[in-house]
Amino acid sequence: MKSLVIALLTLSLFGCQSAYYAAWEKLGVEKRDILVDRVEDAKDSQEDAQKQFASALEEFSHLINFDGGDLQDVYEKLNSQFEASQAAANDVSNRIDKVESVAEALFDEWNDELEKYSNAKLKNDSKRQLNDTQKRYKTLITAMRKAESKMAPVLTALQDNVLYLKHNLNANAVGALQGEFNLIKKDIDLLIKEMNSAIAQSNDFISSIKS
């Protein structure tokens, strides 16, 4: 069992997806099960990203309310929040990519196997289920990608402000950045709203595919 787990990890790392799925199927884990797990992972990563971006916004609010102390320390904390937000965004994107990968494999397999039916009634019923699942999946992945797209403007704004502060560690710099806070807050609020929508779609999709 240990050697099989190592083999699965190796296949996953090196992108041998067909062999990877085949190995799991030998253990009784179908693509449908992997899809559910990956949707749950993507949902979890979005929830983590929400918290991280909210934390970055809170740190930025500390900056614009700066009333004395070590600005270098403030900069380092804000930079740390930016880097953590960037890592969280990358994780979200990677998780969504993994959802797409297994979904495409599942739907291709499902569609191919429709031709193996000899019973027309069962074939039509399976085809209907495939179409319904694909429609729900399209709604889900659209919501996930929409939420993902809202992260880039926030990261860009955070990076700009971190860089500006890095090279201007003085009270004037803080004053110059105060006008940026409301813009970043607006973008983060929109990001969190879109992620909540994607998370709700994830829950609906998981419920439907398990039923």
What does this protein structure show overall?
The protein is mainly alpha-helical and 211 residues long. The chain has a single domain (31-210), classed as Four Helix Bundle (Hemerythrin (Met), subunit A), CATH 1.20.120. 88% of the residues lie in helices and 0% in strands. It contains seven helices and no strands. The longest helix has 43 residues, at 71-113. The protein is elongated, with a radius of gyration of 22 Å. The two termini are 30 Å apart. Residues 1-8 have low confidence and may be disordered.
Task: Offer a quick outline of the entry.
With 211 residues, the chain is mainly α. It has 7 helices and no strands. Helix 3 packs antiparallel against helix 7.
Structural class by sheet pairing and helices: mainly alpha
**The number of domains:** 1
What's the order of the H and E elements?
A: HHHHHHH
Oligomer: single chain
Q: In angstroms, what separates the terminal alpha carbons? A: 30 Å
The averaged pLDDT comes out at: 90
Biggest sheet statistics:
none
Note the topology.
Layout: H1 2-13, H2 17-26, H3 31-64, H4 71-113, H5 120-149, H6 151-167, H7 171-210
Helix pairs in contact: 1-2, 3-4, 3-7, 4-5, 4-6, 5-7, 6-7
Key traits:
single chain, mainly alpha, 211 residues, disordered N terminus, Four Helix Bundle (Hemerythrin (Met), subunit A)
